[in-house]
Design a protein that fits this description.
The protein is built from two helices and seven strands; from the N terminus they run αβββββββα. With 183 residues, it is of the alpha+beta class. The strands form two sheets. A four-stranded antiparallel beta sheet has the order 1-2-7-6, with no helix packed on it. A three-stranded antiparallel beta sheet has the order 3-4-5, with no helix packed on it. The termini are far apart. The protein is rod-shaped, with a radius of gyration of 41 Å. Keywords: Stress response. InterPro entries: A-crystallin/Hsp20_dom, Alpha-crystallin/sHSP_animal, HSP20-like_chaperone. It holds the Pfam family HSP20.
């Protein structure tokens, strides 16, 4: 006796499982498309910011301000390139014979899309005043992006001039003061 099992008895349930799997796959595909779109937008923003950074002038690039020290007969001066800084962003302090220079600048820029960039610049320099400079008369000025620090040099006391005699013995050798006293 042969048993007959109708094939159609399993069919409605397997069809329901296939429909559920198909819906789940469609939902996952939509999620992947949205993720890919977001990644494309992010890549576009990063590429634009990279190009903007490459096109920025080199003066904006981070660098330490250069300093040129000059000493002539009557003055001492130091010139520091600070073209990116305003007087309000600069500080000059004198501590004894040292001059401490610093500059600090913060800038935040926001784009139309809502992204923003933040730039922070800071530098510090220390100068030692020479011994012959009067630190009480130190002055500084800012002109065309150059901070100039100046001080007059002290006049050195005049030293009287005299001729020092050279003594010698017969052999032509110079004797010290003690050897001459012994003779």
């Amino acid at each position: 006796m042969a048993l007959r099992v109708p094939v159609s008895a399993l069919w409605p349930q397997s069809q329901l499982i296939c429909v559920q799997m198909e819906n789940e796959m469609a939902r996952q595909m939509d999620n992947m498309r949205r993720s890919a779109d977001l990644m494309n937008q992010l890549q576009h923003v990063l590429r634009r910011e990279t190009l903007d950074a490459e096109m920025a002038p080199r003066s904006i690039a981070r660098r330490t301000p250069s300093c040129k020290v000059e000493k002539d007969g009557q003055h001492f001066s130091a010139t520091v390139e600070v073209e990116d800084f305003t007087p309000e962003e600069l500080t000059v302090k004198q501590v004894g014979r040292k001059v401490l220079l610093s500059g600090k600048k913060e800038k935040k820029e926001e784009s139309e899309e809502g992204s923003y960039s933040y730039r922070y610049q800071e530098f510090r320099r220390e100068l030692e005043l020479p011994e012959d400079v009067n630190p009480e008369e130190l002055s500084c000025s800012l002109n065309n992006g150059q901070l100039r620090i100046e001080a007059p040099r002290k006049a050195l006391p005049s030293v009287p001039e005299r001729v020092v005699p050279v003594k010698s013995d017969i052999s032509g050798c110079i004797k010290s003061g003690e050897e001459q006293k012994k003779q």
